[in-house]
Amino acid sequence: MDELDIKIIKALQENARLKASELARILKRPRSTILQRMEKLKDEGVILGYSAVVNPWKLGYNYLAYIMLRIRRGIYARLDQVQIARKILEDTSTRNDLPYVEEASIVTGTYDIMLKVWIRDWAELSKFLLNYLSKIEEVASTETFMVLQKLPEKPRPIPPRGDTIEQRKYAR
To answer: What is the pLDDT of residue 166?
Structure first.
């Protein structure tokens, strides 16, 4: 990844709607070069996609919570942590009676899974905890952390580094 790749990534993180021609003009490079680089960054998995950043509060999600799950292990467990996380993500994306789970992370420490959950109202949270999560046999316990304030309000762009781990390995 060179300086041009980094400039392209930073520009697209600021405005993913930039056309290749606009990007070429800003970076003072030929449009064909910009298109080729953008395609390379997509092919290499650096750029995963382009999307709009929306305000969950404007969509009716009034609360944000992090819900920590402890998972039962052993011979009675049918699903592992990854399978449980995938099940929760799938169920909450297809059912309107459940809150929106933005992320499910497998974590270290006291808990096994951390859910980032957007909630419309307290009844929805109660139903999710008492009627949904408690019905998943492998969920031993939960702990909920309500977010009082989220900073920054908009996701921060991930800063691209000038070199990759692979490049540093060979530089020694």
So the answer is: 53
